[in-house]
């Protein structure tokens, strides 16, 4: 199994499966992520995550089967589903009895990517309406791919050939780098959307110094963001980059741009003293309304 220290372009992919429709959608997306990385796919499931009748999510069981046996059935179905789509993938099925959030955080701490579906049953009920998805998003230390499953038809087939990233300042370099790497993995173009002004867009605290003009600060920070992208463009010279600055509300611009993207990459900030990240208004809006899956990149920053 590929662990920490792997190439940033590759690395193990973890997907949380609670047996719901959205979780199967997330599994299918996770297969594609593992294929692009030529890496191991780890499927994590636990019987406490599915607090509902298993028949409702397509698992036919016998009356005498225990919850653990049902969970094993879900995992077998998942492994078989992956084998049909990508027989070349190495798949690691992991059965656990632990709570979803700490277990996925533990397993995913050295993974290249963790994938979850939202509006799942039990364990992942509604990323923004339930507690599990929010807790996972707030505490993950690794990239998290969120696949909204409440309206599966909202996601068209992958094939736009475009990665979209939203950044504000040079502090978002990790998100920009991930976006460039994702463009390489997909053989895709990259669209960079800069926020025109900084106002806690992607979460975290962004206090304005009392002696610095807000407009001057915004101009300086935007220049820093442009420098980061320029440097990455030289490093990943095979990636075609299109840059755009929005001077209005960035959330509608990102959501609209997501119509022609295969994935959106967003930074999510937290201070050194904070227990978790704060999802800002733009992140919330994009998670709610994006027309493609969203990758959240955690970014630590001193207060």
Automatic annotation (TrEMBL):
<dbReference type="InterPro" id="IPR006016">
    <property type="entry name" value="UspA"/>
</dbReference>
<dbReference type="InterPro" id="IPR014729">
    <property type="entry name" value="Rossmann-like_a/b/a_fold"/>
</dbReference>
<comment type="similarity">
    <text>Belongs to the universal stress protein A family.</text>
</comment>
<feature type="domain" description="UspA">
    <location>
        <begin position="162"/>
        <end position="298"/>
    </location>
</feature>
<dbReference type="Pfam" id="PF00582">
    <property type="entry name" value="Usp"/>
</dbReference>
<feature type="domain" description="UspA">
    <location>
        <begin position="12"/>
        <end position="148"/>
    </location>
</feature>
<dbReference type="InterPro" id="IPR006015">
    <property type="entry name" value="Universal_stress_UspA"/>
</dbReference>
<protein>
    <submittedName>
        <fullName>Putative stress-inducible protein</fullName>
    </submittedName>
</protein>
């Amino acid at each position: 199994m590929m662990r920490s220290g792997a190439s940033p372009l590759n690395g193990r992919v973890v997907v949380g499966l609670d047996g719901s429709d959205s979780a199967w959608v997330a599994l299918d997306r996770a297969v594609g992520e593992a294929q692009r990385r030529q890496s191991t796919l780890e499927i994590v499931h636990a019987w406490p995550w599915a607090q509902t009748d298993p028949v409702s999510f397509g698992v036919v069981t016998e009356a005498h089967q225990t919850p653990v046996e049902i969970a094993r059935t879900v995992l077998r179905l998942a492994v078989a589903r992956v084998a049909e789509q990508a027989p070349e993938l190495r798949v690691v099925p992991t059965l656990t009895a632990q709570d979803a959030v700490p277990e996925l955080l533990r397993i995913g701490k050295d993974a290249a990517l963790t994938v979850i579906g939202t509006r799942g049953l039990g364990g992942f009920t509604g990323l923004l309406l339930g507690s599990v998805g929010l807790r996972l998003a707030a505490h993950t230390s690794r990239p998290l791919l969120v696949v909204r499953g409440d309206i599966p038809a909202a996601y068209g087939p992958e094939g736009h050939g475009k990665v979209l990233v939203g950044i504000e300042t040079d502090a978002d370099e990790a998100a920009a780098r991930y976006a460039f790497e994702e463009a390489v993995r997909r053989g895709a173009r990259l669209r960079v959307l800069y926020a025109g002004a900084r106002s806690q867009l992607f979460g975290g605290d962004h206090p304005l110094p009392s002696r610095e003009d807000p407009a001057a600060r915004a101009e300086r920070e935007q220049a820093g963001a442009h420098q980061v992208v320029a440097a990455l463009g030289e490093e990943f010279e095979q990636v075609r980059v299109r840059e755009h600055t929005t001077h209005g509300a960035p959330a509608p611009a990102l959501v609209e741009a997501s119509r022609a993207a295969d994935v959106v990459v967003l930074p999510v900030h937290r201070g050194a003293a904070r227990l978790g990240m704060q999802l800002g208004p733009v992140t919330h809006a994009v998670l709610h309304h994006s027309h493609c899956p969203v990758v959240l990149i955690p970014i630590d920053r001193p207060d």
